[in-house]
Amino acid sequence: MAPDRRKMIVEAATKSFSLFGYKATTMDQVARLANVGKGTIYTFFKNKEELFEEIISTLVKEMIAEAEAVIQPGLPITENVHRGLFRILEFRSKHQLMIKLVQEEAEMGTLAVSEMLRHVEDEIIAYLKNKLDTAISKGSIPSMDTELTSFLLLKMYIALIFDWEKNHEPLSSDQIAQIMKVFLLRKLPN
Question: Which parts of the sequence belong to the HTH tetR-type domain (predicted)?
Fold first, then answer.
């Protein structure tokens, strides 16, 4: 059976981006890691940006799958939102590529990385918005600006999980859930 060259290229690029970052990754490196000629990469991807987009798209799908895995239909929306967001951000904090991209954005401000991280955030917000819209349509929660609420939820979770830990002991999942219920989710019925 012939190797799936496209898959090998994506895996090699993911490894290279994870190790060296976006800016330092070259198509030559990807070709060497994938054990293919550089021209083979261009039969599947126009350029490094398109290859990067493919990888990030897959990463977003993995994040959403992580969230879906912990959501339970019988639980209150507040609990499911907490479970899903916490899992997404936990995935993000442990995924080598995400770690490297966040580091590269902070240290170098690489535009392509900033745009892709923004895309990831937008996808998470859209996912949350969809969950809240569904809950509203079922009458589970009152009508609200679901996009703004989703944005605030994501930003608060990021602050509580990543920013707080810079100068304090990390908060547990239960502590974060309690804080979120007090500050934002208390408006939503359990």
Answer: 3-63
54-187 topology per CATH: Tetracycline Repressor; domain 2 (1.10.357)
- Answer yes or no: is pLDDT of 73 > 80: yes
Query: What class is the 1-45 domain?
Result: mainly alpha
Q: Which pLDDT score is estimated for 187?
A: 57
Q: pTM for the whole thing?
A: 0.86
What contacts 97, CB < 8 A, 6 or more positions away? 14, 17, 18, 55, 59
Give the pLDDT confidence of 84-119 residue by residue, as tens digits.
998 998 898 889 999 899 899 999 999 999 999 999
Spatial contact of 34 and 119, defined as CB atoms under 8 Å apart: no
Q: How far apart are CA 3 and CA 17, in angstroms?
A: 22
Complete DSSP assignment for 72-93: -TTS-HHHHHHHHHHHHHHHHH
> Would you say 77 and 141 are in contact if contact means Cβ atoms under 8 Å apart?
yes
Percentage of residues in the chain with pLDDT exceeding 90? 66
27/37 Cα distance (integer angstroms): 10
